[in-house]
Amino acid sequence: MEALLNQWLWRQEYWLPPGVTWEDMKETENVHYPRPSHLFFGIPCALILTGLRFIFERFVALPLSKKMGIREKYKRKPSNKPILEDFYSKNGKHPTELEILSLSAECNMHIRQVEHWFRYRRNQDRSSTTKKFCEASWRFIIYLISFLIGVAVLIDKPWFWDQREFWTDYPYQVVHHQQIPWKLRM
Q1: Max alpha carbon distance in the chain (Å)?
Q2: If we measure between CA atoms, which residue out of 160, 157, 159, 178 comes closest to residue 168?
Q3: DSSP string for 138-149
């Protein structure tokens, strides 16, 4: 079964241009080509980045947000109304005017009170300012680091400066060992 799956998944018609086979892409001691197995490198990278994000947001971004004076706004909690909560979870966050009328009659509340309840309940679902700051700071750091590493790894390559080099010897372009992890992130 596994052999059949591998045979189907790695068919050269899917991955290589016409007239090129996997046999043409054999590696030698000095020549290294990207291999389909390099795609599996992304799984541990994703797990590592998820762990790093958790650590960064918890131990760097959160204390930084407190030092910068980012405070949470007070979110007024809606009163405990099971009928409204049930409607909110099943039918959506924004009831129509007719639904508000029927809910107000069902709960013995004024229309304005039902509207306020839904507004307060929607506010409870919104991300906090601190959480937004932590996520934005993670994205800033990871994109900055990725960009700087990419420039450092690729700056001495001829195709970095002249894009016509992309097509030189296509598809038999050699990939240096230092480029393999970087190409997998792109």
Answers
A1: 80
A2: 159
A3: HHHHHHHHHHHH
Determine the residue type at 40. F
If 0-12 CB within 10 Å is exposed, 13-18 middle and 19+ buried, where does residue 161 land? exposed
**CB atoms near residue 78 (< 10 Å):** 19
Find the length of the chain. 186
| Domain 82-125 in this protein, CATH class | mainly alpha
Structure tokens at 147: 């960009």
The type of residue at 69 is G
| Rounded distance between C-alpha atoms, residue 139 and residue 91, angstroms | 34
Question: Is there a contact between 14 and 99 (Cβ–Cβ < 8 Å)?
Answer: no
Look at residues 126, 113, 109, 134 and name the one whose alpha carbon lies nearest to residue 75.
Answer: 126
91-150 pLDDT per residue, tens: 988 999 999 999 999 999 999 999 999 999 998 888 889 999 999 999 999 999 999 988
Structure tokens at 154: 């690729």
Closest CA relative to residue 33, chosen from 22, 44, 41: 22
Domain limits of the chain?
A: 38-74+129-186, 82-125
Quick one: which of 58, 33, 51, 1 has its CA closest to 183?
33
